[in-house]
Amino acid sequence: MFDTRTKLRGVAAVAIAAAALTGLGAGTVNAADWPPLQEGAYLYSGTTGTGTVTVADLGDLGTCHILSVPARSVQIANGSASLELHSGPGCTGGAWRSGSLARTDLPWAALSYRVVAA
Fold it and tell me: Measuring CA to CA, which residue among 63, 117, 59, 55 is closest to residue 91?
């Protein structure tokens, strides 16, 4: 009886691992739609890293930047800085923070941003 329970637990663990790997595979397909991840911060006018690209100046900590083209997605890879994106001009309105490693669509169009410490 103990042997049967051990085998059932082993089968369940294999099934859970297979389901998790299947989910990871689906995530990889979505990630392939984005431009390749590279050092820096990039704001895109379209979703999933499409459209006009604005390169954020990660060395300009704290300054508010008004975007000439609203951003709908962001990609950032940096160990010490992140972005604070705002729905209004002049860093007003709703704010969303990226973290230092992110690739995501924004909840709304960002009209301005500020570089902040990660």
Answer: 63
SS3 103: strand
Which whole-number Å values give the CA distances from 7 to 1, 11, 35, in the listed order?
A: 10, 6, 44
Task: Kindly tell me the number of DSSP H helices and DSSP E strands found in the chain.
Answer: 1, 6
Who's near 68: CB < 8 A, 6+ residues apart? 54
The answer to whether the CB of 79 falls within 8 A of the CB of 100 is yes
Q: What is the mean pLDDT of the chain?
A: 81
Q: What is the pLDDT of residue 33?
A: 85
19-51: per-residue pLDDT in tens?
A: 333 333 333 334 558 999 999 999 999 999 999
d(CA 114, CA 118): 12
